[in-house]
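Example record for the data management plan.
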Amino acid sequence: MLIGLGYDIHQLKEGRKLILGGIQIPYIKGLLGHSDADVVTHSICDAILGAMGEKDIGEHFPDTDQEYKDIFSLKLLEKVLKIMKRKSLAVNNLDVTIVAQEPQISPHREKIKKKINSILKIPENRINIKATSPEGLGALGNGEGIACISIVSLVEYSKA
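Corresponding structural encoding:
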């Protein structure tokens, strides 16, 4: 079994859509980035890449490449899964923690879980989406951004 940890953080800005785990969340601000800045999907990608011993998401999908400008991050996750499958690996389980002062994540948790699982295609009880508040501390607590931490375990399978 291989274990990987992923982390991402983006700044909140007016005039952007807020996309978390492939779901558009109604909010007055969105995350700023070269792609859709989906911190949930980015942290999952980095966790999977890390478990495989691959370079990080920025190396695979650089923000200097116009191919990835405004890309829907679930497409990046699909590309990461292709790398994983070439190595005869599969996701065993995934645990995600979103860190945000606002908006409240709990009303969207199940939709995020279902959307991520539409890509991963593993038993739903092996995906956990959690959220926590920074309790007003620091830049995240001031509502300046959103961060996400993901941990994943991968298992090998035979190509037979």
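Summary line stored alongside the record: Residues 2-156 form a domain with the 60s Ribosomal Protein L30; Chain: A; fold (CATH 3.30.1330.50).
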